[in-house]
Amino acid sequence: MHKWIKSVLLRLYYKMEALAEADLPGFANNPKNLKIELPRRLFDTHRISIGDDVSIGPGAMLVPQVRYPSSVMRHPEKNIPEQTFDSRIIIGNRVTSSGMLTIAAIQKVTIEDDVMFALNVLISDGMHGFENANEPYKYQKMWKIAPVVIKRGCWIGQNVVIMPGVTVGELSIIGANSVVTKSIPARSIAIGSPARVVKEWDAHEGSWITVDPKTGAGSPRRKNK
User: Fold this and answer.
1) 5 lies in a domain?
2) How many CB atoms lie within 10 A of CB 79?
3) Which uninterrupted H or E stretch holds 9?
4) Before 194, cis peptide (omega within 30)?
5) What DSSP string describes 13-78?
6) pLDDT tens for residues 105-129?
């Protein structure tokens, strides 16, 4: 009985994989060997460019925002001014995500080649407004809009949130549960909320060195013997 159930589940899994590949919508380009597992939520895909050999796990939501508020965010009685956007999401080659990747673009979010996302990462280049504490925030305009760039080869850990205007430099690492509010230099390791750099790559030594939390500078290079 156990083997029969396992066999049925495997067949169902393979059918779901085949359906996921066959039912992919059109994008702004024609990516090769693209995998976005079910379930998924993809909006306005003509505004999304994806490179080759990309694999995105289940639960992804890719949203290039065209207008705000959308129908589900609109008050049935209030006349809320509509914002319109010319948004883009650009994903490079060989990008991978374990799952639950959310990318919300109002202007532009760029993910360069060979970036690796762990589970449950949120990237947004804009925020809901909160100028008025007497009005529900869902009815206030989007603001603090600024492009986000994740440079080549980065590793973004589990439960990371990347905020508007951030650039994560190439081959940097963002530790799990971090909230990135400011740009991170290339070849750095950043952790925390807000994220701060704790290590940087020393090309001379060929190793990571600890960054002084007070000065933000790397530890002095060891002298050659």
Assistant:
1) no
2) 7
3) helix 2-22
4) yes
5) HHHHHHHHHHT----SS--SS-EEPSSEEE--GGGEEE-SS-EE-TTEEEEE--EES-GGGS-SS-
6) 999 999 999 999 999 999 999 999 9
Identity of the residue numbered 56: I
Q: Which two tokens stand for residue 225?
A: 């013997």
Identity of the amino acid at 204: H
CATH code of the domain containing 158: 2.160.10.10
Q: How many domains does the chain have?
A: 1
Chain centroid to Cα 156, Å, comes to 8
| pLDDT tens digit sequence for 157-207 | 999 999 999 999 999 999 999 999 999 999 999 999 999 999 999 999 999
Strands of the 122-124 sheet, one edge to the other: 40-42, 60-64, 102-105, 122-124, 161-162, 179-180
Question: pLDDT averaged over the chain?
Answer: 90
Residue 15 covered by a domain: no
